[in-house]
Amino acid sequence: MPQTASPTTLCTDIAGIPVVKLAQQFGTPVYIYVASKIVERINDLKAFNVTIRYAQKACSNLAILNLMRQQGLLIDTVSAGEIHRALAAGFKPYYNNIPTIVYTADVFDRQALELVQKYKLHVNIGSIDMLHQIAIPGQDVTLRINPGFGHGHSKKTNTGGDQSKHGIWYEQIDTAIALARKLGLRVTGLHMHIGSGTDMEHLAKVCGAMEIAALKVGVGLTTISAGGGLPVPYQPLESHINLPEYFGLWDATRHHLEQEFGHSLNLEIEPGRYLVAESGYLVTEIRAVKYQAANLFYLVDAGFNNLARPTFYGAYHPMAIALLDSKIDSTSNQEELDVVVGGPLCESGDIFTQAEDSTVLKRRLPKAKVGDYLVIGIVGAYGFTMSSNYNSKPLAAEVLIKLDQKPYLIRTRQTLDELMHGEIIP
Distance between CA 145 and CA 152 in Å, rounded? Predict the structure, then answer.
């Protein structure tokens, strides 16, 4: 957290702008994103010979997509809505015959298929039935392969192995290739993503599986994709991934295949979380402080309708307190307490400090009162995009602190009337 006295104590500002000022100007709960952090993470990856394709499901606000486009990134889409967003943000289907927009899925719903066919989008195929349905002879496609194993920080983020719905099973690669050729489709790409989090031992296995699959496709292959899943450190003792080691493994795979095929190959990566997670903060107001036996609760005006990750799979997010009293700064000695942080929803699971098995945990935080603010960090990925209207709660506002260091509203707070938009009493 920025400007903190210790990892989870006081927070005075975000990117140089006082938290209290942001909260008073835009209201709470509010998502704040810092553009300079996104650009920093993009530049981390630009240091390597790789094509960066942003996985917008992590954070899909049009202003964020526009920033990615301005930084020269390509875009990954997983729904008709995301295709529509990409187009609205200024992405073109192709640029110099390179697919700028790729649709990645294990199934075509009818609306997505219509848009794919209308714009002749490049598709990352996750099931054999999709080959029958795309029906664009001469189209280049990528096959997403499930290598038979997976990896992830949670079972719910593991995208490989026989318990995962994702990808074409590795034993069906020959069938998929033969069918594609029969239908007049050209398999020019292979994609392999086994889950979030990156363990180098698992990654070496993925690279080996990619080489085996690539040799089955043959010399028509032009692109291999490492997928996404690059982790970020959420907890104090965690560290960033060793990017040179990560890219070294994939680059070696690329060079092996280039030697085999006699032509160059493009290496793609699809980061989502890595680019945006650390840029995001959820600022929420403390609305009640109460004891339940030995447990002290800080109850805030944000719930799992705003940030689902802690409830969904026990995700840890750093937290800090921003005191309303501006006379108290981050250098002051503040009494700290063991606190359970919860939201306003009518659910016992509406707790931001819990383990994956739903055990309620405590967090060491400064003594606070009603009207002070709780700042939840590293929420730029899978924060707003997983939010909902549960309990008829309006969607939060979103704010981007642009490279000029000024905050801009990039999503208005949903109104109570907008909650019922589209509903009809017959």
Answer: 17
Question: 102 near 53, Cβ under 8 Å?
Answer: yes
Q: How many CB atoms lie within 10 A of CB 407?
A: 21
Distance CA 249, CA 255 (A): 10
Residues counted in the chain: 426
Q: C-alpha angle 43/37/379, rounded to 5°?
A: 125
Provide the whole-model pTM: 0.93
- The catalytic residues are 346
Query: Could you tell me how far CA 249 lies from the centroid of its own chain?
Result: 23
Residue keyed to tokens 């704010």: 399
367-395 confidence digits (pLDDT tens): 999 999 999 999 999 999 999 999 999 99
For helices 200-217 and 243-261, give the axis angle rounded to 10 degrees.
Answer: 20
User: pLDDT tens digit string along 210-257?
Assistant: 999 999 999 999 999 999 889 999 998 888 999 999 999 999 999 999
Contacts of 423 (CB under 8 A, 6+ apart): none
Cβ atoms of 376 and 389 closer than 8 Å = no
Which residues touch 16 (CB under 8 Å, ≥6 apart)?
405
